[in-house]
Amino acid sequence: MLDSYDIYLYLCCKPQKQATPGNTSDSSYGFHLPAQSFQYSNTMPTIIYPSPIFGPVKSRRLGISLGINLLPPDGKICTFDCLYCECGFNAEKRTTTPLPSRKEVSTALENKLIEMSREGQLPDVLTFAGNGEPTIHPQFGEIIDDTIILRNKYCPGAKVSVLTNATLITREKVFNALSKVDNNILKLDTVDTDYIMSVDRPTGSYDLASIVERMKAFNGTAVIQTMFMKGSVNGRNVDNTGDKYVIPWLEIIREIAPREVMIYTIDRETPHAGLQKATKEELDRIVSLLHSSGIKASASY
């Protein structure tokens, strides 16, 4: 049976028209840019990444990162529609091309690793990220297996990381695939459901309790990633740096018992203009609370 996320994926990914290879003038397909460039929206300063491979880029949290984007290169597909997403809002970034195939991902990754090896610049990490939620891909588990094989062959010192909003970790195949990677980085911005619905904005059903239980089931190997920010949206205060949000979140973090917590704040332009960065002092306070609970934590300002 299809659930709401399956239906959403079908509607987002169904090609509306066959693209002409190399055609950069057909406005119905947006801008088809050179392989390692970024696409900036005409209407808002947000980023769409190349697919299936982009970078390497310098990550604030992960080092020299070679990006693996399992979403199309001309739009965004995500099970969240976050107000702060650097890729923009889902409705304004609908793709017209299909997901890259398992073979396309594997071939592109191997070619890039060969190139980087020849240049003497191997990545610190292979990072699944890009234009939305990577675990949406129907062959996510198989692609993880392929990536680990290629990592072991070309850059055995590199880590495999997945940045996921954790909405699909209740699916057994997704959970099992994430259990294989070095850095299973799960989003948990808050444990306040109303805040999640207003700021992270799930595109389908969202059961916070079930997701937290699956986070616990990683048995201390998961990394939790949390965005802290301030500002207002349509008259609503979205500041989640105060005790109203931090203390309940911290209690759940203790229950999850992750390997590490990464907190961060806005670093690029967002699709909504009312958002603001959390201060260094605010982030440092939260890190201190985590350390006091015996939890390894770091902040990216």
Would you write up a description of this structure?
- This protein has 301 residues and is an alpha/beta fold.
- The chain has one domain (33-300): TIM Barrel.
- The strands form three sheets. The chain has an eight-stranded mixed β-sheet with strand order 3-4-5-6-7-8-11-13.
- Mean pLDDT is 86; it is low at 1-44.
- Helix 2 runs parallel beside helix 3 and helix 3 (140-154) packs parallel to helix 4 (172-178).
- The longest helix has 17 residues, at 102-118.
- Helix 2 links the parallel strand 4 and strand 5.
- The chain contains eight helices and 13 strands.
Ordered list of secondary-structure elements with their pairings:
Layout: H1 4-13, E1 39-40, E2 47-48, E3 53-59, E4 63-69, H2 102-118, E5 125-129, H3 140-154, E6 159-164, H4 172-178, E7 183-187, H5 193-200, H6 208-216, E8 223-227, E9 229-233, E10 236-237, H7 243-256, E11 260-264, E12 275-277, H8 280-292, E13 297-300
Parallel strand pairs: 4-5, 5-6, 6-7, 7-8, 8-11, 11-13
Antiparallel strand pairs: 1-2, 3-4, 9-10, 9-12
Helix pairs in contact: 2-3, 3-4
